[in-house]
Amino acid sequence: MKLKGLRWWVVGLVALAAVINYIDRQAFGALWPDIANDLFPEMDKDGHKAIYGTISTVFILSYAGGQALFGKIFDWIGTRIGFALSIGVWSIATMLHAFAQGMLSFSIFRSILGIAEAGNWPGAAKANAEWFPTKERALAQGIFNSGAAIGGIVAYPVIGLLSVYFDWKAIFIVVAVLGFLWLLPWLYMVKGTPKTHPWLTDNERDYILSGQKNQDLDKDGNYDEGYTPSTGELLKHKESWGVIIASAAIDPIWWLFIVWIPIYLSEVFGMDVKEIAFSAWVPYVGAMIGAIFGGLLAKNRLSAGWSVDKTRKMTITLGCAIMIPCFFLLKAPGSAINAVIIMAVLLFGFQISIGNIQTLPSDLFSGKIVGTLSGFAGMAAKLGAAGLTILVTFITTGGNYTPAFLIGGALAIIALLAVWFLCPKVEPLKPRV
Predict the structure, then answer these.
(1) Whether the Cβ atoms of residue 88 and residue 180 lie closer than 8 Å to each other
(2) Please, what's the largest Cα pairwise distance for the chain?
(3) What predicted TM-score, i.e. pTM, was given to this entire model?
(4) What is the gyration radius of the CA atoms in the chain, in angstroms?
């Protein structure tokens, strides 16, 4: 059996995994007002926020370690089994949330969830490097990132609807089942890499492999070769540090919103769980559009003859230029609807930038080391996100989120500078002499 366009089926499944990933992780934030009132009835809002921030920081720190761990795991056991391991474990961890009794048990279960969910991102980068030619990678990454945005969009309404019929414990069990269902089509359809997959047509196989120019530096037609440095040598390249620093700066912006949107809307505008559920999804619409737009824009420019270097830097700069003014507008949005619309525009710009930053490892190195670099970048990103999350707990006491938004704007500038100065030319790297 041959299946045309198999690479798009693969990225579609990876994007669907991201949707499930976000439903599972966002359930905690969406349900927090009910969880806090149930488990910590004696505390005020600042006390609830401190517990929420602590548990969220544990999750992100675990996520950081999981990025580096799963980057190596994916390079070791491959994309197919790596994804199955990641989503299987995180679905079990989600189910365990139903049995949490306090901050310690929630922290343990969130930690397991964070480690396992982290595999989604180095796995996506590796799948992208394996299944797509260079000119389509930003679009493929955009499709995957749109899955995260769609997860953010549907998570809050789904949780809000489920909360009408179930308590918070039952909801964690319901959403956990989604991950187990995803394993069925994944294991059935993804039988190997493009070189060996029996369903891939000869034309699509040739199209994928011949377009992976950074894996055929000696021009002998063998696209499995290329520059695959050791981990130590990888970290000697300033371009690797450009990817790591840019990721560490820009990724916390995303976490600033996915962690704090429900708490911000509750604290600043007095929304309850159901009101949050039907408002907090709006920023993710902007993120979804930005993810696809950033990928299509990059593909268009590459098809028009732009270099990879010019294309990546233009799209990353455009995304940051959209984000930075939005942070200043959020200082005084005026109303909840204005706030979520500004956030939507901001996350639109974020996704334009992040999708192209996440393709940099496959632009610079052979696919055999992409998972490792993506894992290191992801770990640095989540450490930055953890630091910002715990910081927000203290700098927003009393409901003043202006300091957090100013930090977000500064991080966008740092990410932009890292790409421009540490990646002077985005192209396949060669061994250091």
Answers:
(1) yes
(2) 70
(3) 0.74
(4) 21
Pairs from 225-233 (Cβ < 8 Å, separation ≥ 24) = 225/366, 226/365, 226/366, 226/367, 226/368, 226/428, 227/365, 227/366, 227/428, 227/429, 227/430, 227/431, 228/365, 228/366, 228/368, 228/369, 229/365, 229/369, 229/431, 231/372, 233/431, 233/432
- The DSSP symbol for 280 reads T
- CA neighbours within 13 Å on the CB side: how many for 262? 32
User: What mean pLDDT do residues 326-353 have?
Assistant: 93
HSE at residue 73, side-chain half, CA atoms within 13 A, is 22
pLDDT digits (tens, 9 = 90+) for 68-126: 788 788 888 888 999 999 999 999 999 999 999 999 999 999 999 999 998 888 888 88
- Write out pLDDT tens, residues 290-313: 988 998 999 899 989 999 999 999
> Over 365-420, what HEC string results?
CCHHHHHHHHHHHHHHHHHHHHHHHHHHHHHCCCCCCHHHHHHHHHHHHHHHHHHH
